[in-house]
Amino acid sequence: MSEASTGGAGEGDVFADLKVMVIDDSKTIRRTAENLLKKQGCDVVTATDGFEALAKIAEHKPDIIFVDIMMPRLDGYQTCALIKHNSAFKNTPVIMLSSKDSIFDKARGRIVGSEQYLTKPFTKDDLLGAIRAYARKH
Question: What's the angle, vertex CA 42, arms to CA 110 and CA 26, rounded to 5?
Answer without folding.
Answer: 60
